[in-house]
Amino acid sequence: MPEIMTSRRRAKSWAFTFHKDYEHDLRDSAEQWFRSKRYFVNKIKPFILKSWAYWKRNIICDDVAKYIDKARNEDGGKRPFLLHKYIHHGLSSQAMIFNLLGPLIVRRDLEPFMSALLEINIDFPEVEVRTQFEFEDRKVFNEDAGQPTSFDLAILGKNVNLFIEAKLAEREFGSCSIFKSGNCDGHNPCTGGLNECYLNFIDRLYWQRMKEYGFLDGAISHSPICPLANYYQFFRELLFAIHNNGKYILLHDERNPAFIKYDPERDRVLGLWPFLKQFVPEIHKDKLASMTIQQIVRHIELSKRHKDWIGEFKSKYGL
Known about the structure:
By secondary structure, the chain is of the alpha/beta class. Helices cover 35% and strands 12% of the residues. Strand 5 and strand 6 (268-270) form a beta hairpin.
C-alpha cells in the first residue's frame, strides 16, 4: 500500500525556513555571546540582558556606546535620543544597527557601507553628509502627538537622503495601532470617505500623502481592506522618504523568511517586501531598495580595517 502522506509529513517537505526556527538559532547565538562575556541575563530568557539599565553591554564597541550616550543628551535634552524599550534584548534590531554601522560612523569610515549600497544600485549622498540614528520629522504627517514616524538611521546629503529601516528577528512591518486596539474594523476608507479613518479625522496626513504621490490611483483605492491596517509602517516610511527627496532602504537578515525569501520550485522571490512593492506606483519604485546584513558584513571584511570588532558581530548574531 502507498504510504499515507499526513499533514505532519507534508510539513517537513515545505520549501521555506520557518521563522520560529530562524529565531531559535538567533536566540541561541545571543545567549552564548552574553554568557561568553559573563553578563547578567534574564533568568528565564537568557538571550536578554538582566535589565534595560545594562543596554550598553548589548553594544559591541565602547566608542559606539559612548557616541549613542552623547547623542541622547544633545540639544539640552529637548530632543532626547530614543532608545527602544527592548534595546537590552539580544535580538534588538536597534542594537544590531548600532553594532553594524555604528563603528563605521564613529570612526568616519563609511566606505564599506558605500560599497554595499553600490551593490544594490544606490548612490551615497554627496556634499555636507550627516548621519543620524532614530531620525524623525513630525511635520511630514502632522504627527503632533504620540510616536512619530522614525527611521533607525538617516544619511542626509544635498542631493539625496537615505532612510534605513532595520529588521532583525521581526516578523512584519508595524501595523496600525487604531486597528490593533480594536477601534477600527480594517475597512478601506477610500470607499466611503477618508474621515472614516480616525487618523485622518484627527488631521494626520497619511492619506493625503498617499493621494499626493499617486498611491490611490491603483489597486489600493479599490481594495475593501485598508492597506494601513497591517502595513502601516511600510507605507508611512516609504511616503516619508519620497516626501523628503529620499530612498527607503530595508536592512534585513537574509536568513529571516518574513521579508524576502526565494522559491526554488517556481524561481521567484516571495515575502513581505516584494509583495508590498506591487502596490508602489511605477514612478516611485526606484525610491526603495533592500539590502542584507550579510552584504554589509562582507564589505566590512573586505576593507580589512575593522578586524577588532567584526568577528564579534558575526559571533553575536550567528553569522
